[in-house]
Write a sequence for this structure.
């Protein structure tokens, strides 16, 4: 259906976390809002993500008895985002992030809880915390969406169990202990029983966690406020009158139409991860063309804004946020992209090697830092091969990529070519095109120290963040164990992006700026369409969703206020 009205107060383009936040806030403030989404689903890449939201000094921390301050956060960012660019936007984020969370919990369906033990990614740097800055969505019952549940983008199937059951972080250790711990077995059986009942009335599990829960909560907020959502529609152009963005022209199927926006338009289309020309323009050659984001992120918002006179913020240390991925084919023939974020790389008994069979990075670093290591090692060479190497003990205990722990029949992954297996390290090296002597020397050098839980080459397991991602039950180092038991396995990994960091220049009100620093009246942005306030750095879990929710909130509130701010009075930009 086409929109019911010719004129709205606010039009939001894109239904990811940032766009839905802007829409929910504007609607909560009493405005008539239209959301235009190019796909058939709500949620964007957020629905596939871990759903972590990084907000320093948030009120939830205080409620949980965790200490933090804006002063500490400023110090931490000064030690992780050293570039002066976007300092004003970081200040706005720190000042208004806690306010945004309080507002969303008071006025929408969004509910978040602090992750008490989740360190910042550089815990050794001044101002870091061991947990609480990152918030996660409270589990959500998808049946509350009614028939609209079918419009929520499903999670990646590789991150579910039994064909559609989502599990939260706290359930995973218990599922690994089925048959070993009475309490864990009971908890796991209860989860499975609940899921079985849900499948009687739904094509997938309805107990939602992680980013799927966050997307569902925002979606529920839009539905509760009667926000109109137009699916499968393309915005062709922004409409401007007397120097102000006042609406859009769109196409829905074969029909075109112009829709007016009294207050303004918010661009939240998810960046340009899947636009080949923009990737070629901004990404290093060694990054290739693989993305872990949904295919809808083709730079639509950036192209609309640039045509309207917007400036891009290209002052980024990195043009994207990175993650290593493995590629595979699903049973239906579609290509799968598995992001290796926290499930395997830091666990004891796996290493990463380059095309020469040598380790090139500390495997327990953040996914962003890990890929920076890949890009440095790639030295501009596209499609340079990298592999994760492990043995049978590791594969059984922790899994590898989409291969889950306790997988008896891993042969189908070998037959498909996704997983390479061999009875010896030398034979494994031959099968992946590495000199056997080189890989054997790498394994031998690693094992010599790993037996004692040490990694003198890269210091793996040396920080609280790395140990947090390891296996705390493995002693003496939760991140280090030898690779000894045949068969041995290799899984090819590729550098990929989790989202783009280059985007539109904005001011502290989330208004899009021209090259001269003046705001384009009526045009706002948030999410990955907005230039990274972290300049492409990745200080902690949820530093994409934290700013997305904060600046979505800022945009919604500023649109509701309808303030007319002089162009030179509010340009706290990059």
């Amino acid at each position: 259906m086409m929109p019911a009205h010719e004129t709205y107060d606010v039009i939001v383009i894109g239904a990811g976390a940032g766009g839905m936040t802007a829409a929910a806030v504007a609607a909560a403030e009493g405005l008539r809002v239209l959301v235009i989404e190019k796909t058939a689903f709500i949620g964007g890449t957020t629905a596939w993500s871990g759903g972590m939201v990084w907000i320093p000094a948030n009120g939830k921390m205080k409620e949980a008895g965790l200490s933090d301050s804006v002063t500490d956060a400023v110090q931490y960012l000064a030690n992780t985002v050293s570039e002066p660019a976007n300092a004003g936007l970081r200040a706005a984020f720190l000042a208004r992030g806690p306010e945004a969370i309080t507002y969303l919990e008071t006025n929408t369906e969004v509910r978040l809880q602090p992750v008490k033990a989740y360190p910042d990614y550089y815990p050794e740097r001044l101002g870091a915390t061991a947990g609480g800055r990152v918030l996660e969505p409270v589990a959500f019952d998808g049946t509350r969406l009614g028939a609209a549940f079918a419009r929520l983008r499903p999670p990646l199937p590789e991150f579910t169990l039994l064909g559609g059951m989502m599990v939260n972080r706290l359930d995973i250790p218990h599922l690994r202990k089925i048959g070993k711990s009475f309490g864990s077995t009971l908890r796991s059986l209860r989860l499975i029983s609940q899921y079985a009942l849900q499948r009687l009335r739904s094509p997938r599990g309805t107990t939602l966690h992680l980013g799927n829960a966050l997307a569902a909560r925002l979606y529920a907020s839009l539905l509760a406020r009667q926000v109109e959502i137009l699916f499968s529609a393309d915005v062709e152009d922004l409409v401007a009158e007397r120097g102000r963005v006042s609406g859009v022209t769109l196409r829905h199927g074969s029909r075109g139409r112009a829709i007016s926006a009294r207050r303004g338009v918010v661009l939240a289309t998810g960046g340009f991860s899947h636009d080949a020309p923009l990737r070629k323009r901004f990404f290093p050659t060694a990054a290739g063309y693989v993305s872990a984001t949904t295919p809808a992120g083709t730079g639509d918002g950036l192209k609309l804004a640039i045509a309207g006179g917007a400036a891009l913020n290209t002052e980024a240390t990195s043009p994207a946020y990175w993650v290593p991925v493995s590629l595979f084919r699903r049973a239906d023939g579609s290509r799968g992209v598995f992001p290796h974020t926290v499930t395997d790389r830091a666990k004891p008994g796996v290493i990463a090697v380059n095309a020469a069979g040598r380790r090139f990075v500390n495997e327990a670093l953040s996914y962003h830092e890990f890929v920076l290591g890949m890009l440095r090692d790639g030295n501009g060479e596209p499609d340079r091969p990298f592999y994760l190497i492990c043995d049978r003990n590791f594969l059984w205990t922790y899994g590898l990529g989409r291969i889950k722990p306790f997988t008896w029949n891993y042969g189908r992954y070998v037959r498909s070519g996704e997983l390479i297996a061999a009875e010896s390290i030398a034979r494994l090296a031959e099968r992946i095109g590495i000199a056997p002597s080189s890989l054997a020397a790498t394994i031998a050098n690693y094992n010599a120290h790993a037996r004692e839980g040490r990694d003198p080459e890269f210091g793996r397991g040396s920080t609280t963040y790395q140990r947090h991602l390891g296996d705390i039950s493995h002693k003496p180092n939760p991140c280090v164990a030898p690779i000894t038991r045949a068969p041995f396995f290799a899984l090819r990994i590729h550098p990929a992006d989790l989202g783009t960091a280059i985007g539109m220049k904005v001011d502290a009100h989330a208004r899009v700026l021209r090259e001269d620093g003046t705001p384009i009246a009526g045009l706002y942005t948030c999410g990955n369409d907005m230039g990274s306030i972290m300049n492409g750095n990745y200080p902690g879990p949820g530093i994409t969703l934290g700013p997305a929710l904060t600046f979505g909130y800022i945009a919604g509130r500023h649109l509701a206020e309808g303030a007319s701010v002089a162009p030179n009075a509010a340009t706290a930009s990059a």
